[in-house]
## 1
Amino acid sequence: MEDKNIYSNSGRMDYGDGFSDDDAPIYPQQDSSRTPMQPGGGHGQPNVRTGKRKKSKGKTVFMVILIIVLVILVTVGIFLILVLGRVHYTGDRIDHSIAENAGVTLRDTGTTNIMLFGEDNHKDGEHGRSDSMILLSIDKKSGQLKQTSFMRDIFVSIPGYDDNKLNAAYAFGGAKLACETLELNFGIRIDNYLIVDFNSFTDIVDSLGGIDLELTYNEITYINWQSYRNHQTEDENELKADEYTYYLDRDGYEVALVHVNGRQALWYARDRDSAGSDFDRTQRQRIVINTIFNKLRSTNPFTLMGTVYSAAGYLTTNMDPISLTGKGFELLGALSYEKKEHRLPSDDNYYNDYYDYCGSVLVISDNELERERLYSFIENKQD
């Protein structure tokens, strides 16, 4: 028997397993007009399945992102509805004609001006005292958030009443009359106001976990004394004034960095006995507001939402819900702005006087000069 040469050139391939080319099944001959086989394809057909998979995957990612965005928007919308439902709305409109009819030109500063009143001892149907009156000016052009404090004892002209202290205007006619009084005396147009119950300070600060303030020894003992005498604590020495490390601040005062809760921060903001007078108290109020703003800027979104929700129940405004939402987001955006401060009256432009019917007052020497200084501060035109 002759051996089979598996390496012969006979044109037939023997695969060594009992089969040869003659035994192989016959397949139809490939049509040379068809597209050549592509990697991953079959029999010359283009691989369209891969493209479908890519499109399908991209569509899935898009749908997931869309759903997440919609969930966030719905959540924010529900949160805003809840927050806005807690605010008290007055529907007041400031009567700008009062100042204009008196010959006062109301100057539009081109910034967002919101008058902030801090109120306590409020009763239904009555206006409480406004010990804090601060004009918040949001200056987008220069990226600045400006605070102007108005001393409550400034002797002013009050529409419909005899001349009196500025806080008397608030007592007579609330925030509306106080804004009209400010326009009449200082020539700055004010459209919006916010009244903040002083109790909100405690809740806001507590919701943030407290704040750190630079306090003098006397300020610490004042906070302790007020908390104890008002039966808010049983510890006469709640803040251990003797245990802090003191250093000189930029104004040359010996201070210590003290972590305070909401109640303690409120007593600090209202302190006019431990040092100075009402002038020092207005500065303390601005310090507390700036400290709260700075902490809000660095807090996480959930804490921020809790703080906003808590504060909303203590707010009263003449804005409608839509306007309040817009101004609220504008203010949140301004938390990172540079902070600047001003106070009326200026140190060199007032004198003390006394009237039997209203007591000690601060009389502005040159009202027109004070108007120009206020306008220049808000418009960033100071030298």
## 2
Amino acid sequence: MLTLLIRTVLIYLIVTAAVRIMGKRQVSDMQTSELVITMIISQIASLPLENAERPLLSSLVPIMMIAAIELLISMLMMKSRKVRALICGHPIVVIRDGKILDSQLRLLRISREDLYSLLRQKNYSDESEVRYGVIEPNGSLSILTDEDVNSDGIQSEELKKQIEKRERLTENS
């Protein structure tokens, strides 16, 4: 019983340290890769608790290895847009000039009802009030008004390019 208690405390400390090293985010703010890594770490951490004969290092080493890989990927994502887009995805415009882009909703597998719910959470009663509605890589909705766009409030170069491309396509239609 004492062995199980010591193992539990050690695993708790190591997992807590690994998660702290990887960064502070709430589950709702996690990128897909971060959520997957968190789930894998929790599964690995449970193994020596379920089987007392299993060596503790058989879980601690993989947990630390996964944390190190996550740190490496995070650094690569900070340095490279391509790596970030590959791992996390990119923002997708779902509302343009007050009109919902159904093709983009289908691509994201989001219903209009889900989008309306996200709009209500942002205190918008309907899409006509929105210049651009953008689903961010973490799944949240960002709203850009005419004021935001005209004051160069768009910070993502990738999003700017996507908006400009859509506007060119519209002009050519």
## 3
Amino acid sequence: MTKPLRIAMIGYGFMGKAHSNAYRKLAHFFPELEHRPELTVLCARNREKAEEFARTWSYAEVETDWRKVVERDDIDAIDICSPNHTHVELAIAAAANGKWLMCEKPLAMNVEEAERMTQAVEEAGIPNMVWFNYRRVPAIALARQIVDEQRIGRPFHYRATYLQDWTIAEDVPQGGAALWRLDVDVAGSGVTGDLLAHSIDTAMWLNGPITRVVADTETFVKERMHQETGKMQPVGIDDACMFLARFANGSMGTFESTRYARGRKNFNTFELNGADGSVHFDLEDPQYIDFFEHTRPATGDKVEDHLTGWRRIHVTNFEHPYMDRWWVPGCTVGYEHTFIHALADFLKGVESGTPAQPDFRNALQTQRVCDAVLASARSRGWVDTGVESTQPVAAV
């Protein structure tokens, strides 16, 4: 017996497409799930554009007032796809009305908002999740499996980069529907909340809590025209950020993110080095994970010298995470599949009674690191993150 899950999505745009596609495709590839998403309402301020989007993705109706949506009895779940500054009010109101919550990252503008949102969903006892979709890249999920199998051994180093180049031109404006990520009042931060939040979430999922950081940020273009006012205004977001990190397990981390890396479009990489092995990933070549094995974990024996070397694994076999849901081995999946995996894990968690991660509380820990990074950049010193000592394990 299947159950309808009536979805109201707040906002649209790039993430709206990714989420809508996941709702549409879920039942075809995860037919065992009891819940079947129904695209009931699309809510956005611009009715004309919202109606166009709703027609494309077959939402049943359009609404422009989110307050009406969260109070409707015919809505089961709210998907927050709107800009960061709207998250806190939306989430708290939806929780008060007993709606399930799915929220785009970062969870909030800052830790204070994230704490209020987490408290609201936990007091309401509602299922909740945050769309840190990169955990659901099959190769990254395989990296987590490699770590869980103790093939890395004692970790020493974690390094991450997330590079783009789309804001280099000085005449790119800030604000408005397309460029709100450059407006500090709407986004909260620049690359730290937008890009490094992904890197931080992945790092703590693979390597445990980040306990302290020291950071530096830069805003290369100091003023940009604001699309809504037509006036030149100071730019308040960080264009680039670099930080050093210490993990609870004693390992060291380096993180770098910028939107000023000419030629880099979505260059998201990580590498974890340990006593017994290393693992490396590049999102621009996402079907592969690179693995170096120095010691076999089952026996502790060193790998034969004549076979020592980096191994490139094509993550498309049925035994690899998620891949039994898709095509025959050798055929790859893409970016859009990560959202389908995230949604499937979320619903599987609801139906099994073991919630999938990351939920709001888990995403709050990433928010703590982001806030500590920005605080360190202001103070020019090391800052403790306050991240909880344990991180829940994500469902795969």
## 4
Amino acid sequence: MRRESFRKAGFLLSMFWLLLCIFPLWWVLVTAFKPPLAVSGGATYLPFWDFQPSLHAFRDAFSGIRGDFWGPISSSIFISIVSTGLAVLLGSMAAYALIRFKFSIHLLAGLLFAVLAIGGFVVMTEMWNIRVPYALLVVLFVALPVSVWANGRNLPGPVLGNDDVTFWFVSQRMFPPIVSAFALFLLYAETGKAGFRLLDTFGGMVLAYTAFGLPFAVWLMRDFFESVPVEVEEAAMVDDIGRMRIFAQIVLPMSLPGLIATSMVVLAFIWNEFLFALLLTSSRWQTLPILLAGQNSSRGDEWWAISVATLISIIPMILVATFLGRMMRSGMLSGSIK
């Protein structure tokens, strides 16, 4: 009897929590179809009962009365898809290398790279007055080969392994976003002065968001690649098949559920990202989060228009969450290899 009472109480609490979670979405959906008078006239909840639904807000939004809607929508779609594809591709390659190859990185070699890169950059920009982009390229082309050569020597001190490299990738998302976003803005501004415009461009946004999504891709794909039997790859290597063909034609198809899940997670982060888009765009390549944040006009809070923008922003993510939920229920995310 007591167990049954606990089950009923748990069910009621779950339903109450479900209503709390769904109500904001319902409120946005209903408000998007309300005419302005119905919004300003007080709280109404049920279409055709409390108010007559209207497409007035949608017509205003897509006719350009409240600014350009099509531009941010297309920008978000193109930037998110391309950035997600690049992040997952590069992240998959890095994750596969971290699973199948052993890395040994001397801490002193890493410190040497930092000293050469940072010190050389300061000397070239402050003492020799070389522009930031050129100085950055020069120090990277010098510091990277020198540190790789030094890493091959028998250096004293700690040696970092694969787990340390993986943690380094994940740690990139532990920094406050404003730090990397502001540094990237300064770099893009200096690059523009040198004749290579990256601010408010498609390439600049894709570059920033690829770097933004890369740690997630490495972290997630590493676990999926661990489920691929190494015996399959060894059999392919016996037939004299190269590593790139093994990766592209064997490992990736066997990890397809992981690729899909990782792509959706990275896409969700990129689609909803606000700070980088705020700092790195001004007009042409602004994304949906920037459009949504700017919906408060001088005419006041026009909640019907804000709800339309919100609805457009959240529908793709609702579809992604639904698809991921179906994959989890069907067991696809548990790995394609048993």
